[in-house]
């Protein structure tokens, strides 16, 4: 069996690394001329897609895959549409289209009665005054597409500020979303197979810095069984509605007892990297199993797991990671704010795992100060 993945980043890399031991071969579609392909070198054929190439020629160049999947939602869906005549695209194109646009995501959630942060949709700059009058401040302006790791987002405190940002920045269509003083950010990752069966990982608690995920720990501490069940219900309703196949993640804000959805990811997710060490079957293998038409593997936890992102560092001192952790380095070129790798930790309890993650960061800091 061969699977083609759209994208060339670390998620594509880890999907292939999970599927290769299952005898699956991979090829990769690079849809951006300037994309960094170092993550996927050596893992399968790399094919650059050009507008001039016919879909047949592209499909042939990919080695006639049995299935096509994605490692990201920000892509031109017409590429997927042109390939869908040859083999299944999983998750399906409509699911990718929905999740690549914040307003479409909000409409899907509303249709299912799933709560998310209140927002006002601005189709164009002309909607700025109506938005400025309607919202409760502070709000965060988020472009509907092309945002990740907090990019294309502006926190605004007054109507005047909102009007000036919308007039100056190329941000519409966008949403003006109420800023929430949440207690915690949590996420749920789950998978749905071709026969409709589903499997869910424990919720992870996620810590962000400047809009970028820095740390996850799972199972999230002090969640009630009711809250975990609610998150599973949200994800299961969303996947069923979309007739979804593969792994999906839902980011949520926890406010008191209430769980509000922040955003959806139609793919494996950074807040699920802990599953590589902390669950019986990791999210990457479960995505491959799902899209290959196989049974899902167990998503049961093995102890408490933590994940520390290695961000924007030249070369993180990986040798400082303790012996019960496992290191992933993606081979990307360093850049401020860029995710270059992660370390997974597994231990007996929450305090121990957090302490070991703090310990690693402390050693890195001490090393950099001594240089
Ligand atoms: N409405 C909000 N209220 C409070 N914090 C928010 C809100 N929206 C986003 N954030 C913060 O910014 C981070 C990134 O925003 P998000 O919408 O998840 O975009 P991205 O696609 O960049 O991950 C969130 O994880 C959260 O920490
Ligand atoms: Mg997010």
- Give the termini separation: 49 Å
Shape: globular
Main beta-sheet strand count, sense and barrel state: 9 strands, antiparallel
Would you list the SSEs in sequence order as H and E?
EHEEHEHHHEHEEHEEEEEHEEHHEEEH
- Each distinct ligand: adenosine-5'-diphosphate, magnesium ion
Helix content: 25-40%
Low-confidence stretches: none
Radius of gyration: 21 Å
Q: What is the residue-averaged pLDDT?
A: 96
As a percent range, the share of strand residues is: 25-35%
Helical element count? 11
Could you give the count of β-strands?
Answer: 17
Class derived from helix and strand content: alpha+beta
Features:
371 residues; alpha+beta; nine-stranded antiparallel sheet; four-stranded parallel sheet; 11 helices; binds adenosine-5'-diphosphate; binds magnesium ion
Short description, anyone?
The protein is α+β, with helices and mostly antiparallel strands and 371 residues long. It has 11 helices and 17 strands.
Walk me through this protein's architecture:
The chain is of the alpha+beta class and 371 residues long. The protein contains eleven helices and 17 strands. Strands 9, 10, 11, 12, 13, 14, 15, 16 and 17 form a nine-stranded antiparallel beta sheet that branches. It has a four-stranded parallel beta sheet with strand order 3-2-1-4, with helices on one face. Strand 9 and strand 10 form a beta hairpin. The longest helix has 21 residues. The radius of gyration is 21 Å and the shape is globular. The N and C termini lie far apart (49 Å). The mean pLDDT is 96. The site of magnesium ion has 2 residues, from loops.
């Amino acid at each position: 069996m061969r699977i083609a993945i759209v994208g060339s980043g670390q998620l594509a890399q880890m999907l292939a690394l999970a599927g290769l031991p299952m005898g699956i071969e991979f090829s990769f579609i690079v849809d951006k001329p300037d994309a960094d392909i170092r993550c996927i070198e050596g893992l399968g054929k790399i094919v650059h897609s050009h507008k001039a190439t016919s879909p047949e020629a592209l499909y042939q160049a990919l080695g006639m895959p049995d299935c096509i999947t994605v490692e990201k939602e920000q892509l031109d869906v017409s590429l997927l549409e042109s390939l869908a005549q040859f083999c299944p695209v999983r998750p399906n194109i409509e699911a990718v289209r929905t999740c690549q646009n914040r307003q479409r995501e909000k409409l899907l959630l509303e249709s299912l009665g799933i709560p998310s942060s209140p927002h006002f949709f601005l189709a164009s700059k002309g909607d700025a005054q109506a938005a400025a009058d309607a919202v409760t401040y502070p709000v965060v302006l988020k472009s509907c597409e092309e945002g990740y790791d907090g990019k294309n987002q502006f926190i605004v405190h007054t109507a005047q500020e909102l009007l000036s940002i919308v007039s100056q920045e190329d941000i519409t269509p966008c949403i003006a979303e109420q800023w929430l003083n949440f207690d915690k950010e949590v996420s749920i990752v789950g998978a749905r197979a071709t026969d409709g069966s589903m499997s869910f990982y424990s919720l992870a608690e996620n810590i962000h810095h400047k809009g970028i995920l820095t740390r996850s720990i799972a199972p999230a501490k002090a969640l009630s069984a009711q809250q975990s069940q609610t998150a599973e219900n949200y994800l299961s309703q969303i996947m069923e509605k979309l007739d979804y196949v593969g792994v999906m993640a839902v980011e949520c804000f926890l406010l008191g007892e209430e769980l509000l959805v922040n955003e959806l990811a139609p793919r494996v997710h950074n807040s699920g990297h802990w599953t590589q060490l902390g669950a019986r079957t990791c999210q990457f293998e479960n995505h491959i199993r799902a899209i290959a038409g196989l049974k899902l593997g167990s998503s049961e936890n093995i102890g408490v797991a933590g994940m520390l992102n290695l961000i924007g560092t030249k070369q993180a001192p990986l040798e400082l990671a303790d012996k019960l952790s496992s290191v992933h380095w993606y081979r990307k070129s360093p850049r401020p704010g860029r995710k270059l790798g992660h370390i997974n930790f597994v231990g007996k309890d929450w305090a121990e795992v957090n302490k070991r993650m703090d310990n690693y960061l402390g050693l890195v800091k001490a090393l950099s100060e001594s240089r």
